[in-house]
Amino acid sequence: MTSQLTDSSAPPAPAAAPSTPKNSTPSLREAFRQPKSVWAIAFAATVSFMGIGLVDPILPAISSQLDATPSQAMLLFTSYLFITAIAMFFTSWFASKVGVKRTLLVGLLLVVAFAALASGAGSVEQIIGLRAGWGLGNALFISTALAAIVSATTGPSAGAIILYETALGIGLAVGPLIGGLLGAVSWRAPFAGTAVLMGIGVLAIVVLLRKEAKPAHVSPLAALRALSHPALRTLALTAIFYNFAFFTLLAYSPFPLEAAAAAHGMEFGALGIGGVFFGWGTGLAITSVFVAPLLTRRLGLIPTLVTTLGLLTVLMAVMSLAHSSMTGLIVLIVIGGLLLGIMNTALTETVMEATDLPRGVASSAYSGVRFLGGAIAPAVAGPLAAATTVGAPYALAAGALVLSILMLIMGRKHLAAVGSHEALTEVQEAEAITAGDEV
Questions:
Q1: What is the distance between the alpha carbons of residues 338 and 138, in angstroms, rounded to a whole number?
Q2: What superfamily in CATH does domain 34-437 come from?
Q3: Angle, in degrees to the nearest 10, between helices 36-54 and 100-119
Q4: Cβ–Cβ < 8 Å for 138, 194
Q5: Residue 421: how many CB atoms within 10 A of its CB?
Q6: For the CA atoms of the chain, what is the radius of gyration?
Q7: Which of 65, 113, 236, 349 has a CA that sits 20 to 30 A from residue 368's CA?
Q8: Are 61 and 340 contacting, i.e. CB atoms less than 8 angstroms apart?
Q9: CB-count exposure of residue 291 (10 Å: 0-12, 13-18, 19+)
Q10: 388 DSSP 8-state letter
Q11: Which Pfam families does the record match to this protein (predicted)?
């Protein structure tokens, strides 16, 4: 996820504006009064986040038109997430060597190249390989985008973070919808559209982003070494099982939706799936920004995590039984988005509070591990459903969530620092939201 989110080397606000502290909370109007360079990064970030859900609506189409099994189609998520996970351990080091702007551009150019190649692919195996390159590019971009946007702002960093959260929310919500609209034309169109939009983002950053952030030196093994910290290890293990469930819902659900629609004599199609996951992404964005901070302040971080994981376990169990109901699946997927938004933010905020490690290093280590859980889920869900029943992947996801709760409870002694520190500043809380949602 966001390895550079908390880089203390980002330059302070200009001395010419002493009346506006760097961490003050700006009005919405002030938050959106930003230089063109900030808007360039925000645009590229929106498109980057769109790419997370863009592929979801076209998975059944890819499966049918390229003579691939659902299991093969879901590997588009696995290759993307696996490479993203590995890259996340080293993005902090890479950015510290080549600079933030170059890291952004390398990441964007990789996404442009691999998305464009995917649009012309002739087999599902080719797309799986190309999605791996896409994952590397996205890891490099999202790991440095917030640091760059904070660095380029001329006002309080909180204003830049509000803009970044807005880009994130729009991208998560609109990505599946755009994927559905373009996918209704052809499964190739979402890939081509991403390449074009990211290409515009590259040009915007080349022309408009002139101020170079100077991150502090980071060891290439810093994130891996961080996992020796008991608290971080506990939360990483919690996250790997949680993300297994997250990506079971995201990557597998289009296929039961299509099957349930067909059983009712309907053709759901890419546009229908895109609409459902538009609701999912909108719910996730809303609860991560507005509901999660409220719950964590009132209940505490650990109770919020345990409660939300419990509710997600029940949700997955119900989905395993209601997989033949089209209406039931739609409602449950959208509810799932609401719960996942709370969970993402609360878990990342707990990571920030639980250790005395630099937040960027802790975030890199935690994100790398949790993406591995996401990579495993699509690879398991398809074969499991083919060998057993349609509801089995959801039942397995419910079991993974139980393990996630157990990891949290068993390692709770290592999380004594959570809640004992002063409350996170509004800027740090916003960073937790953005880190948590960069799935």
A1: 24
A2: MFS general substrate transporter like domains (1.20.1250.20)
A3: 40
A4: no
A5: 11
A6: 20
A7: 113
A8: no
A9: middle
A10: S
A11: MFS_1
Length of the chain: 439
Residues 32/153, Cβ–Cβ less than 8 Å: no
Cα gap 194→197, rounded to integer Å? 5
Q: Crossing angle for the helix pair 254-263 and 230-252, nearest 10 degrees? A: 30
Per-residue pLDDT of the chain (439 residues; tens, 9 = 90+): 333 333 333 333 333 333 444 444 555 565 567 788 888 888 888 888 887 788 999 999 999 999 999 999 999 999 999 999 999 999 888 988 888 889 999 999 999 999 999 999 999 999 999 999 999 999 999 888 877 877 777 666 666 666 777 777 788 889 999 999 999 999 999 999 999 989 998 998 998 887 665 667 888 898 899 999 999 999 999 999 999 999 999 999 999 999 999 998 888 889 999 999 999 999 998 998 889 889 988 999 999 999 999 999 999 999 999 999 999 999 999 999 999 999 988 898 888 888 888 777 887 888 889 999 999 999 999 999 999 999 999 999 999 999 999 999 999 999 987 865 455 555 555 555 555 555 5
The DSSP annotation for 230-249 comes to: HHHHHHHHHHHHHHHHHHHH
Report d(CA 165, CA 44) in Å as an integer. Answer: 13
Cα–Cα distance for residue pair 218/21, rounded to 1 Å: 28
Amino acid at 123: S
Query: Residue type at 86?
Result: I
